[in-house]
């Protein structure tokens, strides 16, 4: 399987095929609105503004598995991010990233790039960088800010 074989739900519950993103560089992030890393939304939006015309897509997957830090509905999360951080990149339905109910997409991402905790996601704002051919190239820790990975994104564009 490849990343393009997965379907996800957007924040309104509509099916989205990741095949729609073929040929794009992807940064896939599990996020939360009440986390110490939440201000990274600003850096993510800056990356998106800087590189979207060159083919970058940031895919935002809210997750409430870490400290109950994304407790709102999909609509509330979207409103918060849009109003507080002016985010315009695609946001999807809240998911789980670990455990038996983990999103199949995240199971795949974790198999492709293990982190310090093996195949488990450590915390909110873990990031996966995918090249234009759909290869999962790198996994970044929550402490790796968007600014820190800017050069790696730019190199793929």
In short:
This protein is of the alpha+beta class.
List keywords for this structure.
6 strands, single chain, alpha+beta, 157 residues, Glutaredoxin, 4 helices, 4-stranded mixed β-sheet
Secondary-structure blueprint:
Layout: E1 7-9, E2 15-17, E3 25-31, H1 40-51, E4 56-62, H2 74-85, H3 104-112, E5 127-130, E6 136-140, H4 146-156
Helix pairs in contact: 1-4
Note down, in words, how this protein is organized.
The protein has helices spanning 40-51, 74-85, 104-112, 146-156, and strands at 7-9, 15-17, 25-31, 56-62, 127-130, 136-140. It contains 4 helices and 6 strands; from the N terminus they run βββαβααββα. With 157 residues, the protein is α+β, with helices and mostly antiparallel strands. It has a single domain (3-156), classed as Glutaredoxin (3-Layer(aba) Sandwich), CATH 3.40.30. Strands 4-3-5-6 form a 4-stranded mixed sheet, with helices on one face. The protein has a two-stranded antiparallel sheet with strand order 1-2.
The residue fraction in helices comes out at 25-40%
Terminal Cα span: 24 Å
What would CATH call the homologous superfamily? Glutaredoxin
Number of helices: 4
Order of helices and strands: EEEHEHHEEH
Rg from Cα = 14 Å
Extract low-pLDDT stretches: none
Strand order of the largest sheet: 4-3-5-6
Give the CATH level 1 class. Answer: Alpha Beta
Biggest sheet statistics: 4 strands, mixed
Which secondary-structure class do the elements indicate?
alpha+beta
């Amino acid at each position: 399987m490849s990343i393009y074989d997965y379907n996800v739900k957007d924040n309104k519950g509509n099916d989205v095929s990741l095949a729609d993103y073929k040929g794009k560089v992807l940064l896939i992030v599990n996020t939360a609105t009440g986390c110490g890393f939440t201000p990274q939304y600003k850096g993510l939006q800056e990356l998106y503004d800087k590189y979207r015309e060159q083919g970058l897509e940031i895919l935002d997957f809210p997750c409430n598995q870490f400290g109950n830090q994304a407790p709102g509905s999909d609509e509330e999360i979207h409103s918060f991010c849009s109003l507080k951080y002016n985010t315009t990149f695609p946001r999807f339905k809240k998911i789980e990233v670990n455990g038996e109910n983990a999103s199949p997409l995240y199971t795949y991402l974790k198999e492709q790039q293990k982190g310090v905790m093996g195949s488990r996601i450590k915390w909110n704002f873990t990031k996966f960088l995918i090249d234009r051919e759909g290869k999962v190239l790198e996994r970044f820790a929550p402490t790796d800010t968007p600014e820190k990975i800017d050069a790696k994104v730019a190199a793929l564009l």
